[in-house]
Amino acid sequence: MKTAFISISLASFILSANALVGSSWSVTNVPSTGLTDITFPLTIVEADHISGYYFAQQFGFVNSSIGYTGLQPRPDADGKPVLHAVFSSFIDGSTTTDKNCAAGADGGPGVSCSFEWNGVYGRRYDLEVKFNGSSVWVGTVIDTVTGARIHIGSYTVPTNAGGIQSSQAGFVEWYPWNSYEPPNHCALLPYQKTIFGNPYTTHLLSVGTQSPSYEYGDCVGQVAFQTVEVLGGVENNCGFKGMTGM
Ligand SMILES: *[C@@H]1O[C@H](CO)[C@@H](O)[C@H](O)[C@H]1NC(C)=O
Ligand SMILES: *[C@@H]1O[C@H](CO)[C@@H](O)[C@H](O)[C@H]1NC(C)=O
Predict the structure, then answer these.
(1) Which residues form the signal peptide (predicted)?
(2) What is the pLDDT of residues 186-227, one digit of tens each?
(3) Closest CA to 170 of 203, 226, 127, 123
(4) Ligand 2 pocket, mutate which of 96, 129, 136 (most atoms under 8 A from CB)
(5) How many Å lie between the centroid of ligand 2 and the Cα of residue 136?
(6) pLDDT tens-digit readout, 27-56
(7) Does the C-beta of 63 come closer than 6 Å to ligand 1?
(8) Which helix (H) or strand (E) holds 3?
(9) Nearest CA to ligand 1 atom 12
(10) CB of 31 closer than 6 angstroms to any ligand 1 atom
(11) What are the structural domains, with CATH classification, of the chain?
């Protein structure tokens, strides 16, 4: 059955070996055709200003594969913090004409879009994924302090893909370990603390909930992981101050 096949392939994404922390989300009252918009609040409460962490939310398209949106720290530039926002599709046959986007996602089919700006640590950014009414899905970062809308990118998915499904999961990953894991790597994990906020949508009577985070992957029990429910979402932290992952 097609649906069964899709859930198995999603499970393999969620259980990708090197992610550290997962956190499921769900939205009530989603029509069978899926949502045409969903927004994921995300706050990087604390993380070193270095590349390596990816704080992401996955979303699934009805009758199709998944996409991600999320944030990654970057080294400061000219004394100012820099955040890297990601918006991607893993659906084979996705296309784009957006200057922030390119073909391919994590070495497989799809489209990846990214944009860097002087994002502020400790500030909540709302990552909006929205169908724009003429076949294009648009990823936008909303700055919840200034109200600014920052364009990440846009893509078109094949016509058999419907809207966004009612549940999926976010994750925290230290991505340099996807290509090389140093000896005793878990003890080298840099510290991070993030809040995955409850997702929301403009769809009538739909309410989003983020579930408590959990550990998975090959460092379970070794990275000082903690999770706690906070107003509007779920906070998690892991890793060790002063470490660089190497
Ligand atoms: C998903 O696939 C089923 C079975 O082919 C079909 O009936 C349904 O209309 C599709 N949904 C969307 C949103 O395309
Ligand atoms: C949707 O996005 C595409 C690509 O940016 C654009 O050409 C089109 O005009 C947009 N449609 C609407 C309704 O905004």
Answers:
(1) 1-19
(2) 999 999 999 999 999 999 999 999 999 999 999 999 999 999
(3) 127
(4) 136
(5) 6
(6) 999 999 999 999 999 999 999 999 999 999
(7) yes
(8) helix 2-14
(9) 162
(10) no
(11) 19-238 (2.60.120)
